[in-house]
Design goal:
Layout: H1 2-10, E1 17-21, H2 36-46, E2 50-54, E3 79-82, E4 94-97, H3 99-108, H4 119-134, H5 137-156, E5 162-168, E6 171-176, H6 187-199, E7 205-207, E8 213-216, H7 224-241
Parallel strand pairs: 1-2, 2-3
Antiparallel strand pairs: 3-4, 5-6, 6-8, 7-8
Helix pairs in contact: 5-7, 6-7
Length: 242
């Protein structure tokens, strides 16, 4: 982080902000090590920038250990962006500011937009928060996520094509490779597994630069029976492919 800030300054620019996901999903599902963000955020603040936490994917208890991805790292963002899970399928998103970040903007900038909102997605978002409290969703995600990862690790333990099973909560990545030692990505194999699962009515996707990481991100309503069904289906595919 310090190197990036220094490079900006050498070119005559000051750091404005650090925007980062609480889980690097497009890179291949990287959620650890816990705490790595803290030193980065301190560097950003020291350089006069703000920390913007993108919680669109890692928020709303997706990682199980906390309601928000940034909370796992013991940091407080200046701005938090969120969406997708908020309305359980209805289009709604949100942004939260620390007062000292937004007050000056509100005083000095005339801001408007032409978006015509609706009270329906807002009502849905409020209902989603009620369900989180009533059904103790975070604890359910934590427990079922552990069971899901443990099952996947057991199924793939002897496979020469699985480099790693990683993730937290209901956010799991399985890195598929041509060789465990070289870790050369195997996109074709990942595509085959994804399509085989789809044929069995189980939907996942691929991620990472090499598109070789199975991205397993089930709905937060996933329960123990769903975990069992997923593992049984995945085991059948793995028997043929992995």
């Amino acid at each position: 982080m310090r190197g990036a800030i220094d490079d900006l300054e050498r070119h005559g620019y000051r750091l404005a902000a650090l925007v980062t996901d609480g889980a690097y999903s497009s890179d291949g599902i990287f959620t650890d090590p816990v705490g790595y963000l803290k030193a980065m955020v301190e560097e950003v603040h020291a350089a006069g920038g703000v920390y913007i936490a993108d919680e669109v994917q890692s928020g709303f208890a997706r990682l199980g250990e906390s309601m928000w991805g940034f909370a796992r790292h013991d940091v407080v963002p200046d701005i938090v962006t969120m969406g997708k899970p908020m309305g359980n399928g209805l289009p709604v998103s949100g942004v939260v500011f620390r007062p000292e970040v937004s007050d000056e903007f509100g005083r000095n900038v005339r801001y408007f937009n032409t978006f015509g909102g609706s009270s329906i997605p807002v009502a849905a978002a409020a209902a989603v928060l009620d369900v989180f409290e009533q059904e103790n969703v975070q604890q359910r995600v934590l427990e079922n996520g552990r069971a899901l990862r443990a099952g996947l690790e057991e199924i793939t333990r002897e496979s020469p094509f699985v480099a790693e099973v990683r993730g937290n909560g209901l956010y799991v990545g399985i890195e598929l490779v041509k060789d465990r030692d070289t870790r050369e990505p195997d996109r074709a194999l990942a595509d085959d597994v994804i399509n085989d699962l789809r044929d069995r009515r189980v939907l996942i996707s691929g991620t990472a630069r090499g598109a070789n990481v199975l991205k397993i991100r089930p709905p937060l309503a996933f329960d123990a029976a769903d975990v069992t069904r997923f593992l049984e289906t995945f085991a059948r595919v793995a028997q043929d492919r992995l």
